User: Which sequence fits this backbone?
C-alpha cells in the first residue's frame, strides 16, 4: 500500500485556546471514514520559539504532548486514566462542555455520541463511520484542571488523500 499524501486542513492551532478553555475545537466537522493526522509543532528556530511543551496545573515540570513521564502515578480522575498526565488528547463529537467518553455501562448507547482518544506528539486515526461531530483537543488532566495548563501547544491537522 502506498503512503498517503497529506492535505493541511487546520494550521498552527493553539491548544488550549484563549481564555482557559478545557477543549479547543480544532475542526468544526471531523469527516467520518477519513484518515486524519494530528501533529504537534516543535520548532525552536521559529520566532518566538515553539517548544512543543506545556505544564499541567499543579505539576512542577513541563512536558511534551506525550505527557509527564517523570511524575508517573495512577490517577483515575484524569480524562483518560491509562494515559500519562499532560498528554495531548482528542475528542470527536459532543459539545465543548463534554468531558469524558460516555457514562459507565449499562447506560452506554450502542453507538457512542463522542469518543476520547490519546494523541501525543503525533496521531494518525481513521474517524469512525458512525461518529459525527467536531474534533476537539485538550490536555489529559482532571476535568476541573484542563483549562489551567501553563503554556500551549501549536497543532496542525492533515487529511489523507487516498
Assistant:
Amino acid at each position: 500500500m502506498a503512503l498517503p499524501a497529506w492535505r493541511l486542513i487546520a494550521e498552527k492551532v493553539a491548544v488550549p485556546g484563549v481564555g482557559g478553555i478545557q477543549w479547543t475545537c480544532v475542526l468544526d466537522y471531523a469527516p467520518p471514514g477519513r484518515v486524519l493526522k494530528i501533529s504537534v509543532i516543535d520548532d525552536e528556530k521559529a520566532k518566538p520559539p515553539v517548544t512543543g511543551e506545556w505544564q499541567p496545573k499543579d505539576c512542577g515540570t513541563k512536558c511534551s504532548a506525550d505527557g509527564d513521564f517523570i511524575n508517573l502515578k495512577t490517577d483515575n480522575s484524569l480524562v483518560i486514566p491509562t494515559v500519562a498526565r499532560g498528554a495531548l488528547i482528542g475528542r470527536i463529537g459532543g459539545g465543548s462542555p463534554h468531558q469524558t467518553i460516555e457514562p459507565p455501562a449499562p447506560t452506554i448507547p450502542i453507538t457512542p455520541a463522542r469518543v476520547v482518544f490519546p494523541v501525543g506528539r503525533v496521531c494518525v486515526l481513521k474517524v469512525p463511520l458512525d461518529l459525527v461531530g467536531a474534533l476537539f483537543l485538550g490536555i489529559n488532566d482532571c476535568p476541573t484542571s484542563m483549562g489551567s495548563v501553563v503554556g500551549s501547544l501549536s497543532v496542525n491537522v492533515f487529511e489523507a488523500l487516498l
